[in-house]
Design goal:
mainly alpha
């Protein structure tokens, strides 16, 4: 059975918020650096997969987000795992994920 749209949006929100929390730990110099990076990768896979399940007409309501990049990072993490540039992943989380989550928040408000 297909998940309702709202649950997909909540999946993006939850995984994205978790990724930002893990990034805070990583940035604070937490000693389990490798495991935190792997956690961020896994969370970004969830974000990308959930976004890929959202209808294009919904995503068009938030044109400031490059949704293809959101799903693209998932594709790289899953299919090109040996070519993952960890710094690019962290940079995407640090600099682009907050705006994506803001857009998701607005979409959730519309879907009530």
């Amino acid at each position: 059975m297909k998940k309702p749209l709202r649950y997909r949006l909540l999946d993006v929100q939850s995984a994205g918020q978790d990724a930002l929390r893990v990034l805070e730990q990583l940035d604070s110099g937490h000693p389990d650096n490798r495991w935190l990076r792997l956690a961020i990768e896994r969370l970004m896979i969830t974000v990308g997969e959930a976004v890929s399940q959202l209808p294009p007409e919904l995503l068009k309501r938030e044109p400031t987000v490059d949704w293809s990049r959101v799903t693209g990072i998932r594709h790289v993490l899953v299919h090109d795992y040996d070519g993952v540039d960890q710094e690019r992943v962290l940079n995407a989380v640090r600099h682009h994920l907050p705006a994506t989550l803001d857009a998701i928040e607005r979409l959730l408000a519309e879907e009530l």
